[in-house]
Amino acid sequence: MLFLRHHLPCRPYATFGCRRVVAGQNALQQLQSAKFSRLQSTSAVPAKKSWVERLPLKVRPYLYLTRIDKPIGTLLLFYPCTWSITMAAYALQTPYTVPLTFISLFGTGALIMRGAGCTINDMWDRNLDKGVERTRERPLSKGDITMPQAWTFLAVQLSAGLAVLLQFNWYSILLGAASLSVVTIYPFMKRVTHWPQAVLGLAFNWGALLGWSAVAGVTNWTVCLPLYAGGVCWTLVYDTIYAHQDKHDDVNMGIRSTALLFGPHSRQILTGLSASSISLITYAGLLNGQAAPFYLGVGLGAAQLARAVYQTDFESRESCWNGFVACGWSGFLIWMGALGDYAYSMYAAPA
Question: Signal peptide span per the entry (predicted)?
């Protein structure tokens, strides 16, 4: 009885204690598993891979250097060209083959020259990229491409760009060549001024001047200058939004930007720049005698730009990227307005 009294009460307690230990161990294992899963989800390579990964290994670094897997940059360079080409075709009432030809040539040129700009940018940044999470995967930073190889590749890109430019008249060739100085100094400007976005705007909207001269033989400065200025303001909007996603890295790298300059006042300033952009493009349309379809496109572009500025969370990288892409759609809508106006004018023109 003494034996029973001494041991029987302990058995259920021991069993309960063991269950508590096992339960605690299970909970700890679940916690560790969940923690590991979270770490995996944040650090693992995204499941969705670029189409570049399907190509031969040797060509991938060069394609990544040009950012060809992110076409938004090419489109942002392309749209001001399309505005100018289409507005010139509208003013001169050219056959549809004329804007179609030049839009094709400028599309090819935008793809090539945007890639060349990215190559120049990464060559400037190769030492700053090391140790920075968002740039350490660039081909030059990883060592997938050496500097001599980058120089050779840049020469190929510029030669291809020149081949496209030589399809135009001499006035356009000289005007296009003049833009190379702005393209070359842009990567350096982010180390000396808080306004590199303005320099990018000067380079990225050169097509607003060049597109008209390609169609007409000379640039109509009365129309093209406000169109160009409107494009520069548009670039300041979308590239400031883009710069906000990198602002913390930029401080560590010694890079300046309008995102850092505008800071907490970014939304108000970008609203003003958006209004300036739309006003200048509208004014260019008035000077060119555009009709209702053009202004419908500009109005839709204005609404899209306002939505992008209003909805962007400047402290969220994902939101900044989405806002950046959304700004690109505003440029597309403006082009659609100009294209619709041109098509309607051709349809309505007397035989």
Answer: none
